[in-house]
Amino acid sequence: MPDTPHDEVRTRIDGLLKDEDDWVTAMATVVCELHHAFDHFHWTGFYRTVRPNHLKVGPYQGGHGCLDIPFDKGICGAAARTATTQDVPDVHVRPEHIACSSSTNSEVVVPVIAPSGQVIAVLDVDSDDSAAFNGDDVALLESICEGLGQRYGTDALATIPGMA
Predict the structure, then answer these.
(1) Residue 136: enclosing H or E segment and its boundaries?
(2) CA-to-CA distance for 62 and 82, rounded, in angstroms?
(3) How far is the C-alpha of 29 from the C-alpha of 41, rounded, in Å?
(4) In which order are the strands placed within the sheet that holds 119-127?
(5) What band does 2 get if pLDDT is binned at 50, 70 and 90?
(6) Which of 37, 65, 110, 129 lies most in the core, judged by the most C-beta atoms within 10 Å?
(7) Which helix or strand (DSSP H or E) is residue 103 part of?
(8) Of 46, 40, 41, 44, whose CA–CA distance to 25 is shortest?
(9) Percent of the chain having pLDDT more than 70?
């Protein structure tokens, strides 16, 4: 059975990150590969935990994103606060949604969790299409984020004031 597009992207990301020890470089690489692999990924990026309960935009592809998101605001904040994936087929039915882009209609936000259980970032993928993401998309994003958290989480936490 041939590899699916999701398998191919995961293989490419794993190969590119094989010897990479820098967390920011890893985030930038993941975002670039994901964004260019899938036509329905219109904004693809990380929001990094920069202090307890607070996210700031990290590496991303697409138009400008929100710069600053507290854990108690928006879908990204919900993913960070609850440490659970937020798969939102229609952002307009979620009153807490922050419209960083007026064209966004659906999004998936996946937390990146360090071995200690602390959220070090979230991966946010937005689409201008409604209900754009399927189970394969979500599974790929969750798998990538789980691997990033395990691999880079402890070192990333050491750089976040109030989190080490």
Answers:
(1) helix 135-157
(2) 26
(3) 15
(4) 68-70, 54-61, 43-51, 119-127, 106-113, 86-88
(5) low
(6) 110
(7) none
(8) 46
(9) 97
Q: CB neighbours (10 Å) of residue 88? A: 22
Structure tokens at 117: 């259980």
Give the separation between CA 2 and CA 100, rounded to whole angstroms.
38
Write the pLDDT tens digit of every residue in 34-81: 999 999 999 999 999 999 999 999 999 998 888 999 999 999 999 999
Q: What are phi and psi of 21, to 5 degrees?
A: -115, 0
Which residue type is seen at 5? P
CATH topology classification for 5-157: Beta-Lactamase (3.30.450)
What is the total residue count of the chain? 164
8 A C-beta contact, residue 121 and residue 141: no
